[in-house]
What does this fold into?
Amino acid sequence: MPLARLAERPAGTLRFGIATIDTNGRVADAALFRALGWTIDTRLHLQTCADLVVVVADEQGVFRLRPPGHVRIPATARHWCRLDLGARVLLAADPVNGLLVVHPPAVLEELVGGLLNDRFRDGAA
It folds into this structure.
């Protein structure tokens, strides 16, 4: 299922957190889940897109926000996105569009590495 077109969001509305994928494939960040309006047992739909895991609230979703407040990322999604148990990931919540994006270390390396190369190329700062 393709992602819906995202609504334009004002600058400064994204929320970020860092989480560790636990031994059961779960991530947790209570502040981000609150910002998204998710509560325990909120039904969730999870999909992968361009090496990212995207989670949205969906009444037909097969996953749920489980007590004490975590989202489990299934093994197949973790493998597709190169997410190892114990990995630290960037969580980006977009409350305007109601989605949570899990950024794997490889994606962060690509983004931050490119930014560093652009900013500090040839000694320019």
The mean pLDDT is 89. Strands lie at 15-20, 26-27, 43-49, 52-57, 63-64, 71-72, 88-94, 99-103. The chain is about 20% helix and 30% strand.
